[in-house]
Each structure stands twice: as C-alpha cells, then as structure tokens.
Amino acid sequence: MKPLLKNVLILILSLLVIGAVFSAASVNNKPAVETIGVTALVGKINQDQITRIEVKEDTLSAYTADNTEFIVKKETTESLSELLTNYGVPAEKILNLNVEVKEPSLGVTLARSFLPTLLFVVGLSIVLWLFIRQMQGASSRAMTFGQSNAREVNNKNNRITFVQVAGNPEAKEELSEIVEFLKTPKKFVDLGAKIPKGVLLMGPPGTGKTLIARAVAGEANVPFFHISGSEFVEMFVGVGASRVRDLFQKAKKTAPCIIFIDEIDAVGRQRGTGMGGGHDEREQTLNQILVEMDGFDPNLGVIVIAATNRPDVLDPALLRPGRFDRRVLLDLPDLKARQEILTTHTLNKPVAKDVDLRRIAERTVGLSGADLMNIVNEAAIFAARRDKKTIQQIDLLDAIEKVILGPERKSYVLSEDERVMTAYHEAGHAIVGHLLPHCDDIHKISIISRGRAAGYTMSIPGEDRKMHARQEFLDDMAMMLGGYVAEREIFGEITTGASNDLQKATAVARSLVTQYGMSDELGPRTYGQRDDMPFLGRNAHENRDYSEKIAEKIDSEIAKLLHDALETATAVIKSNRPKMDLVVTALLKNETIEKEEFTTLVGPAITSPKLTPKPASN
Ligand code: ADP
Ligand code: MG
Ligand code: ZN
C-alpha cells in the first residue's frame, strides 16, 4: 500500500502544479491599468474619448487617442455592440469605434473547457482503481486460502547438515540412504529399486526430529517444504484437503525435494475413534494425504518425512507399505550423545577453561536435546547477567537446575519454622536415598524454593539405564516418602509439602503392580491397556480389562507396597537421626549442600550388590 500512497501523492502534486501554471498564465502582468465600469466606458464613448477597443472574451481594453488603456469587464455571452446599444450609445458612435476581437488561443480554450472534466475523470479513476485493487486483494486472499502455506527452506547460509545433529548414529545411517537417493536417483532406478516415499520420525519431544529432517534436505541440497500438521486443520472445512493437494503439486514441480509434515498426529490420528470434535475435517485431510502419497511416482524424487511423538495414535493406513513404511526412532540422548549435543551448542559461544561438559552430561540424565540447548542458552544468560566474558561451569550447573526445577524464587521467603521443617524434609529424602543401596546418587540438597517446591533434593543415576529392577523401584519409593517420614518422625506432624512426593510414590506403586508384573499377589500380567511407548504423555482413558474384584486387589497391593516403603524409610530415619541433624544444621546455615559436603557429613553411600545368576539346583 505504501508505493500506492506515494503515487497518489505525486499525482495530486502534479495536478496542483498544472493548476498553478494555468492561473499564473492567466494573471496579467502588464503595468497596472485602471479598471472602469461599463457606464464609465459608455460616458467616455459618448464624449468621443475612446478610439479603439480590443475584445478578448469578457475583457474589453479601451484605448484613448493618447493610448491610455482602460479595462472593462463584461459578460462573455453579450457582444460588444449589443452591450453598447443597450446602454444607449448611438449607432454611429459604435460604428466609429475601431473594434478588434482577439480570439483566445486554441490550447487555452480547450484547456478551459476540458480541464474540469479531465480532473473529474482522473479523480474518479483513482478512486475506482483503489477500489478494484482492494477487491482484488480480498478475492485473491480468498483464492489462496486453500493453498498450503508450506515454507520452502533451502538457503545456503542456514543449511543444516548431519554434523549439527549430535548422537543418533542409527537414525543418521538410515536417513543417509534417503539423501543418497535424492542426490543420485538414477543409480537406484536403474536397478529397479523402489525408493521409499515416506519416512516417519518418532521420538519424544525435543529429540531433534525437526532438526534431522532439515539436515536430510541440507545434505541432499534439495528444497524442503515444511508444514505442521495443525496447519492443515483450520476453521474452514475442506481447507486441509486442498492444502494437501496444493502442497504435493508444488513439491512435484520442484522435485527432487522433501515434504516435511511436522506433528503429523494432529491430522493422522486413527480415524473414527469418535473422540473430540472436528473429525470430518481431519479425516478428509488424512485421506487426501494418503491419496497423494499413492498418486505420485516413487521415482519422481519427492520424499515425505513426517514427525510425531505419538506414533501409537497414528492411523494404521499411514503406516502401510508404500506410505510411511520407513520408521526412524530418535531416542533421548545417552551420556555420550548428551556430551556431543552440549559440545555442538557451545561451539560458537565463549566458554571458560574450567567447563567440563562431561560432568554436565552426567548431570542431565533423561533430558532431551532441546533441554540441553536450553541449558547452554540459560548458562550464557547467567554469565551475561553476572558480567562475565565467558561461560563458566557454575553458570552451566545453575542452568541445569533452572531448566529441571524452574527458576529460583528468592522472594518466596519461608518463616523460620518452615525453613526447619523443609530442611528436615529434604534431609529425610537425602538420607534415605543415600543409605538405600538402589537409589541414585545424591548430588545436591537445597532449601531455596524453586518453581513450586519449597526445597529439593537432586539425585542423578550414575549411568544411563534401559532396565530397572524391582528393588530399585522399592528403594525409590522409600526415598520419595523420606520427606514425609522425616516430618512425621521429627515433628509428629505432616505438612502439605509432601503431597507431590505421595503422588509420585503412588504412581510408581501402580506401575509396579499393573504394568511390570512385580507384585506376587497379582502375578505376571498387565492390568488396563496402556500403549507400549514409554514416551507417551499421559493416558487420558485407561481401558479397563479386569473385574471389580481385581480392582480391589490392585488397590490393596498398591497400599501394601507404599506401606512397606514407609516402613523402610522410617527405619532408616529413626536409626540415623544424628546424621540428619548434621545435614539440617548445614542446610539452615548455607541453604544448599553439594554432593562432596554431603558425603563428608554422612559417610559414603551404600551401593547395590551386582546381580549374579543363582547356582543351579536340582
Ligand atoms: P523435535 O522436533 O524432536 O521436537 P527439534 O528438532 O525441534 O525437536 O529440536 C529442538 C532443538 O533442540 C533443535 O533445534 C536443536 O538445537 C536441539 N537438538 C535436539 N536434538 C539435538 C541433537 N541430537 N543434536 C543437536 N541439537 C539437538
Ligand atoms: Mg519438532
Ligand atoms: Zn519431598
């Protein structure tokens, strides 16, 4: 709209200039001449003073014998002789006058008669033009609305390659095949190989699915159409399907290329489950995706990559051969991968010599790549706010806590009683965790409130583990109840501060009974259907596949497990009161205790015995 406004302004200005020129031209710049009325002129004629009259439209110039000029205005329509006759000038006097009629120049006449019309027409055209433009804008917006607004990304400076994706060697290997096809399709086609059309990236949020998809495009150096599943689903019915059609059309034109559908579960959920509204729209979109995927020639060079963290809810039709039949799993990074990710993200930042990324990686078990990136970023912010030139280890350590536990709330001041209570609560967790063989190492205890917790005890597993034994769960539950037990044993009172601990312990007990078959009473089976993917968010509806009688048994079994955990924790706390008092004193003084200080206070941790096979018995 800006250039348009400028044009209009220029137009108006030039019209003004033209007008000014015209009026300047019509101004008479001869020396001032006396203007007289018609009556005065008639008087002068009657007295024979006037010898010559020039008529120029409505202006009469009357000249005396000595060439003095008088100007007289008359109406244009009336001729001079008529005028004089009407004023009673005798006819012979009129004949005696030497009258010259000067016609105005053709240009001026034309301009005079047409200029108003012209201005009017021009003005009208401008208004019409503006109007039409606006209408076209609106209608073209209406037309594009079924078009996909997939963004095509392939700029040179922002190119992402596999180097930027740390860890995930298997995923990279699987995807380099795709890269190769995009680069040299002929090699595969000549051998009659059918190239996969669709690749499904699965993994918890923040594990680099979007990143690796872009890296594939970057490696192959082909265009990359990025669209998110939710963009297909809009307010208007039918938009999704037409966007899909448009997207594939664009892609086919630019082949070889990659279509990346992020968060495909937004449209690709199982059809007809009847939950939630807006089904038809999603189904149509999904159907259109399926139709398009079946429709194009596999050797065209269009590869559809989709990402989801809910593979379990996807419609089976999407996973059929010929569609998303390649599946690539991106898992949470292990120790080595975490260190690599941290290295990648600190490359372009000034890092102090004391930084030990391995130690940071050790402390971040269970965090995703996105979390790690966030930690490095928070550390840089800490360093800047502390007026440092480089990022130091302490900034990274503080950033971990901020990311895991939320920001410190220094303003959330506890009363003295609450501080003591919190100190015992946290010391309870720490002592139980420290002295039970299967719990994770205690890394830090604090009574500075963070997020919603009044204090916290940070325990971190020594290594990445894929499997967990029953005894570990039992010890963990005891540690979770350690705070509760400490409050109860030492103050004879329980506060609301323990409610989150109780929730967590109950959840562990429930999984033990219903998922892992770890309860003797209920045996080796699962209760209730849960999806087998460990990274599934919460399950909204448990599908009950057991009787009321079993439900009661489950409840009593959960209660029993929790009761046992309570006993274990109570025993530890009762027999270690002096150690707890030491920890509490230190906490009240310094607010936080690090791992080393804690070990000095309470002695070394008790570690779990290795599991060994039993000797054969007969
Ligand atoms: P997802 O799509 O799986 O939710 P993203 O690809 O959006 O995750 O990851 C978010 C950010 O986290 C990325 O931009 C990247 O900076 C960082 N990240 C995640 N995984 C990795 C990794 N393996 N290597 C390097 N950076 C990673
Ligand atoms: Mg993503
Ligand atoms: Zn607690």
Folded structure, characterized:
The structure is a single chain. With 618 residues, the protein is of the alpha/beta class. It folds into four domains: 1-26; 151-329, P-loop containing nucleotide triphosphate hydrolases (Rossmann fold), CATH 3.40.50.300; 335-405, Helicase, Ruva Protein, domain 3 (Orthogonal Bundle); 416-602, Up-down Bundle (Methane Monooxygenase Hydroxylase, Chain G, domain 1). It contains 23 helices and 14 strands. The chain has a six-stranded mixed beta sheet. A five-stranded mixed beta sheet has the order 1-4-3-2-5, covered by helices on one side. Strands 13-12-14 form a three-stranded antiparallel beta sheet. β3 (59-64) and β4 (69-73) form a beta hairpin. The chain is elongated and about 160 Å long. The model is unreliable at 531-540 (pLDDT under 50). Bound molecules: adenosine-5'-diphosphate, magnesium ion and zinc ion. Adenosine-5'-diphosphate binds at residues 165-168, 203, 205-211, 307, 341, 344, 369-370, 373.
> What fraction, in percent, of the residue positions are helical?
40-55%
* CATH class category label of the largest domain: Mainly Alpha
Number of domains: 4
Note the gap between the termini: 92 Å
Q: What's the CATH topology label of the largest domain?
A: Methane Monooxygenase Hydroxylase, Chain G, domain 1
Sheet with most strands: strand arrangement = 6-8-9-10-7-11
Number of strands: 14
